[in-house]
Design a protein that fits this description.
Layout: H1 3-9, H2 11-29, H3 36-60, E1 66-68, E2 71-74, H4 78-97, H5 107-126, H6 130-148, H7 155-186, H8 191-225, H9 233-240, H10 243-274, E3 280-281, E4 284-285, H11 299-322, H12 328-348, H13 355-384, H14 395-398, H15 400-414, H16 420-434, H17 446-474, H18 488-506, H19 509-517
Antiparallel strand pairs: 1-2, 3-4
Length: about 525
């Protein structure tokens, strides 16, 4: 093992860890008796500086990755690099939104935990080995549990953290159990060799055990992306966590998890085609070029069926449940469940060219928009003491800029053109349908066409509950017309996010070309 290569490959994570230690030293060593607002501002700005250095490190590390012998443990370039840069940008934005917060007396510890959790997200995005994946997921998850419970004076925060922790521990157990089955079937923890080994094991009669392993892994990863039926933690966590923590969970965790799912889907689809099947079969070796047995229920087929169920259930349940919510935080939670269902479509019908970039485009734009939405909710909540729908009554009179930001972000989440949310859905659905070329009338293409039609129909349903919030902000009269003031930094960040949503919607090629540059 070359430790120089390991250090180069993990340079972004190292930068975040050093920044986390620096934040703690400065906050507890030099600013312990300073005013609370000063401590929060300094800790947040140091965290943002650490994210900036880590972004530089992503580019400086190059596209070499890290290998141990013939095993690639950490990938570089492609979806891994896109996700890592996105995670760092989103982390910086959530830290800037922290400046106006007063929920904790320990801002240094909070920012340090955010940075360490982001480091876990970076590891997940690049992981190519089952053990590395599990380590990264646990590093991210432990940080999220702590962040959820950081509002110590809030009973909802403690309750949400406990539920999140219990569900998370259970999902980690399922995930590790599934990984152990894959290792037993394939004899390896390296993803491409796992796919090859499980294919041959399935050909030899181990298909039921492989299906059980994949169901367990889907349960573990489905928890991370809040896909139905592994979503129960999301509404309580989004409602009880501090606003900046909820924004971090809804954005950074999603980007890291879907980057991992892209890597798994890519490997499941193409590893048997990229490498010769030289795995031992009943004491012998299948020679290169030998015909692969047909009609074997391989890992790719089973994985597709599982994702299909998760996608359809998430789209339907997430949107329908959001209709009944009176809390905007819980509404955003069920909206996140529905969006996870849309994104899974791109992983079901996966192509090497368009699908990874379409999924990344969707996840990045959704995460950016969600951070802005939680930023607006946080400002309104601090002013009114509630996140209920009626708290937004007359927002356009109480703070016109905040209401304008809310309008742009919610219409983008609903997929209204020309905002970036429309292009995210358009690119994703087009990527799914392009898998079948001009043969959409063929029987085999009816299922993807049906799923895309279902996604479009429930996108229309989602417009209703987004408009319920906007109706209160713009149409219904306010019971209290006291102005709602936002911190200048918070307002600047929210306006920047709203401007990015508009500009990227009017010029979608900007983000598309940036993502494509990592694949060239």
């Amino acid at each position: 093992m070359n430790y120089v290569d390991l250090f180069r490959a993990t340079l972004p994570e190292t930068a975040l860890e050093i920044a986390a230690l620096l934040v703690i030293v400065v906050d507890l060593g030099f600013l312990r008796k300073a005013a609370a607002k000063s401590r929060v501002a300094v800790a947040a700005l140091l965290g943002v500086a650490g994210c900036a250095v880590a972004i530089w490190a992503v580019y400086a590390a190059g596209w070499s990755g890290f290998s141990n012998g013939s095993y690639l443990l950490l990938a570089a370039g492609g979806s891994a690099a896109v996700a890592q840069v996105a995670i760092l940008v989103l982390t910086a934005l959530t830290l800037l939104l922290l400046i106006d917060s007063e929920f904790t007396r320990n801002p240094g510890e909070y920012v340090a935990v955010v940075l360490m959790a982001a480091a876990g997200g970076l590891i997940i995005s690049a992981a190519q080995d089952l053990l590395v994946i599990f380590v990264g997921l646990e590093l991210l998850s432990l940080g999220l549990y702590i962040l959820t419970a950081f509002a110590k004076r809030s009973g909802k925060s403690a309750e949400a953290a406990m539920k999140y922790y219990l569900f998370g521990g259970m999902s980690a157990a399922f995930l590790l159990f599934g990984f152990s089955y894959l290792y037993g079937l394939s004899g390896s923890t390296y993803l491409p060799r796992v796919v090859q080994g499980t294919f041959m094991a399935s050909a030899n009669g181990a298909a039921p055990l492989l299906l059980l392993a994949l169901v367990m892994i889907a349960a573990g990863l489905g928890f991370k992306i809040a896909a139905v039926p592994f979503h129960f933690w999301a509404p309580d966590t989004y409602e009880g966590a501090p606003a900046s923590a909820a924004a971090f969970i809804a954005s950074v965790s999603k980007v890291a998890s879907f980057a991992l799912l892209i890597s798994i889907s890519y490997t499941v689809r193409w590893a048997p085609l990229m490498l010769h099947m030289t795995v031992s079969v009943s004491g012998g070796v299948l020679p290169p070029g030998a015909p692969i047995p047909r009609y074997v229920p391989d890992m790719g087929t089973m994985w597709t069926l599982i994702l299909m169920v998760l996608s359809a259930a998430s789209m339907v349940f997430g949107n329908l449940a959001a209709l009944a919510q009176s809390s905007v935080r819980r509404l955003l939670a069920y909206s996140a469940i529905a969006h996870a269902g849309y994104i899974l479509l791109g992983l079901i019908y996966f192509s090497r060219t368009s699908a990874p970039q379409a999924v990344l485009y969707y996840v990045l734009t959704y995460s950016l928009t969600t951070i802005g939405a939680f930023g607006v909710v946080g400002v309104v909540e601090r002013a009114t003491g509630s996140d209920k729908l009626d708290s937004f009554l007359g927002l356009h009179k109480r703070n016109p800029l905040l209401a304008a930001v809310l309008l742009v972000l919610f219409l983008s989440l609903a997929g209204i053109p020309p905002l970036v949310g429309f292009w995210a859905k358009f690119n994703l659905f087009a990527a799914v349908l392009s898998m079948f070329g001009g043969n959409l009338r063929m029987g085999g293409a009816m299922l993807p066409l049906t799923l895309v039609a279902l996604a479009i129909a429930f996108s229309a349903v989602s417009l209703y509950y987004y408009l319920q919030v906007l109706k209160r902000a713009y149409v219904m009269p306010a019971a209290d017309e006291t102005p709602i003031n936002a911190h200048p930094v918070t307002l600047a960040v929210l306006l920047l996010i709203a401007a990015a949503v508009v500009v990227l919607g009017c010029f979608p090629a900007l983000l598309q070309n940036w993502i494509a540059s990592f694949y060239s």
